[in-house]
Amino acid sequence: ETASETVDEAARDMAHRAGMSLVTTFAKACGSMLLGILEVRLTDHRWRGRYAAISLTAELLLAVAGTRDMVGQLNFLEAEAAKLQETLVVSSDEESDDDGDDGDDDGDGGSLGSSMTVSDAYDASVATEAALAKMDPALMRRLLSSVYVSRFDPQPQCASAGMTAWKAIVSNTPRTLRDILPVAVRYIATLLQDEGGICEALGVRALTDMQAKLGERVIPTILPMLQGGAGLVVICDRAPQAALASNHGLLLRALKHGLSVDSSSNTSTALDILVRRVGKHVLDDILNSMGNDTRGLLAVLEARPSVTLPRMLPRLIDLQEHRVLDLEMLVKVVASSGTAFARFASEVMRTLVLAGADEEQVLDEDLVRQLLLALDSDMPLEEATGAIIAGIEGEIAPRYPVRSSACRLFRLLVEGRGEATTTDIAEYIEAALRALVMTVCKTDPTLRASAEAALTALLDVIPAEAQPACLPALHDSLCDLQGDLSPTILKPLVSVAVKGVLSGIVTGAKVLELLVAHCDAASFKPLCVSVLGPLIRVSGDRASSVNLRTTTLAALGAATVRGGAGVRAFVSQIQSTLVRAIGDVARDVRRAGVDALAVVLAAGTVVPVKYGPLILSLGT
């Protein structure tokens, strides 16, 4: 303890000498006790403690065994003990037989002749057992294993001490390793369980060296003891392919256990190496042995996603019959596969769209949302979004339930990603707007409701400053639209168009005019104030461009007619705005003013026109 903790060199040297004195003095009498104490200190986290324990262990082993060939001495004593014990048993049986004779022989028949007497055999057995008790073979083999491993200590001083100690107590390394192999392998397996610590580093180096010295015999001994981790990496990377093939079953069991419980990436690395060296068929064997072990399956996927994913997907989703078999597991697989999912994203989304339209299948919306959120922001998400938009447009199947299912998927995608949607699928925003706007006027109520919910969710997550950029897509889709928009979807679309008008964007006024054309008076009535106010302001602003003013005047005329009696409060402002436009210096503005006024007057029975003030204004 002093040699481990003190920083004083003189004190450490004195403590080390005291330890040597204790070892020399009490080696014969208390060898087992001292060996047990030193065994604990050989894995001390302080390198000075390990250094002192290595030196003292070597000295103690030499003192107890009295020879460098300790393995030979141990084997000899164990063999002698077994032989003497057998002799003792046989001699006792023969003596019992002689005692049972009727006494007719001359007395020589009961003797052992040249063999050992029972008393001699017993005394020899006791002596041998006493010698073995002083050496404690099991403990000494553990210590020999510890000294062997200490040669690979990352601290140079400890590694040097371990090398010196090993040479001092071992005369034949291969023979010693073969004798202590089960004990040493068990000790190394224990060290390997210390993930990321000094013990794991020791275990990895020792296993590498032992495998190099003893070859294939190490593998079947250590594999049943490994719990995954760095040891499997060493085995899979360094063992000959023939050895890996001959121990295939043991290796699969170790990998399966490691993938299920190993929190580090070592076992996944080992599997990756094994697949590279042996072949992809290993993945099939592993997956078949995993069963429903979720953690293990995901670990296999993380190791080789591009190879494992095609083997796992058929268990979770039937792409041919369009059935989802295990949605919860599919979510986890998508989250773990990264960009490898890209080549399957389109087909999986297609299957989800069709499955959502199947009344026999009920997909949990929360799980679907998690799946869409788990998609990588790179290629998989783009492929999936493209497939969903194709479903909205009817390319997967023209049936309304299928298109409605695609709308629901898109809504879940947008809701899950929130404002990040505009950056994650920026290339698909315009396409999604066109597809949804063209769908919101369909006659099927379920499809219409699904499309409106998806379009509303999309417009809600687009930042206000980015909404004007959506106007061209809205304009193109509204030009081809047939039917009226419902009040539910009209309000957010009008909001986007008004922001465009106030930002000086001509397309905003065009979209606003188209929106007015695709709604009835009842739907437009709640929006009169929010529409007419900006139009009056911009069309009467001489600082605005001629093109913007002419477009807003046309929209103002259309909005006034659609508002009907609801525009009564704005009639004076509208008339004065149109009259000023008629007197504007710009010819295009005058013409647009005349056209707008003509539209309003043509609807005089609907719009409460104030003809008196209008005539006076025109006269002046």
From TrEMBL:
GO terms for cellular component: cytosol. Residues 309-485 form the Stalled ribosome sensor GCN1-like HEAT repeats region domain. Pfam families: HEAT_GCN1. Residues 92-108 have a biased composition (Acidic residues). Keywords: Repeat. The keyword Repeat applies. InterPro entries: ARM-like, ARM-type_fold, HEAT_GCN1. This is Stalled ribosome sensor GCN1-like HEAT repeats region domain-containing protein. It comes from the Eukaryota. GO terms for biological process: cellular response to amino acid starvation; regulation of translation. Residues 89-114 are annotated as: Disordered. One of its GO terms (molecular function) is protein kinase regulator activity. The keyword Chaperone does not apply.
